């Protein structure tokens, strides 16, 4: 059982470039989330999706976009990367039905460096 | 604003007991969670408290006092593999998880 798969695991990117981080889950969970994790800060929610076809903004959505065309996939796109988007990005899912149960399953993370 | 406070770093000895505290101020409360995160890895779920009291799960226990906005994670019989960061998170009234910055636990032989 793969759980949640993220790609790439690591990427160095020039500022101004477009980048898509991929996230796929095989648990048929309704809800999916994108977080960024920076040293000294808690996990910060970027965008979320409670079910296929719907998305919402989290705490730090600016500069990022997401889509949820189906249950399994939840890609995160940086339209024009900036150095402040250097971070570790985690995709997560939960099987909470209409709302978040708080028990999240995380992917292994994507380490992004923007120069 | 919403806030989760936990110590940045703690050190303990192998075989000993350690308590990691977490205090919170959030808009509503739908549960408190502890996650473990080893360096370079993803967080993994440890425990969930929604009612006051102690929840025990093997060597790990988690306590909650909603009136005090306080929780702790108790780790007994510490092993070297327990060296990790421990993240406290609260599910608020909008069912959004609010995360603390994590406590890095260093275990010494």
TL;DR?
Chain A is mainly beta. Chain A contains no helices and eleven strands.
Features:
heterodimer; A: 7-stranded mixed β-sheet; 11 strands; 0% helix; B: 109 residues; mainly beta; 6-stranded mixed β-sheet; 5-stranded antiparallel β-sheet; 57% strand; globular
Q: Can you describe what's shown?
A:
- The complex is a heterodimer of chains A (115) and B (109).
- With 115 residues, chain A is an all-beta fold.
- Chain A contains no helices and 11 strands.
- In chain A, strands 2, 4, 5, 6, 9, 10 and 11 form a 7-stranded mixed sheet that branches. Chain A has a 4-stranded antiparallel sheet with strand order 1-3-8-7, with no helix packed on it.
- Helix content of chain B is 0%, strand content 57%.
- Chain B contains no helices and 11 strands.
- Chain B has strands at residues 3-5, 9-13, 18-25, 32-37, 44-49, 53-57, 60-65, 70-75, 84-91, 97-99, 103-108.
- Chain B is globular and about 40 Å long.
- The mean pLDDT of chain B is 95.
- Classes of the chains: A mainly beta (115), B mainly beta (109).
- Chain A binds chain B through residues 40-45, 58, 90, 96, 99-109, and chain B through 4, 8, 30-31, 33, 35, 41-45, 48, 87, 89, 91, 95-102.
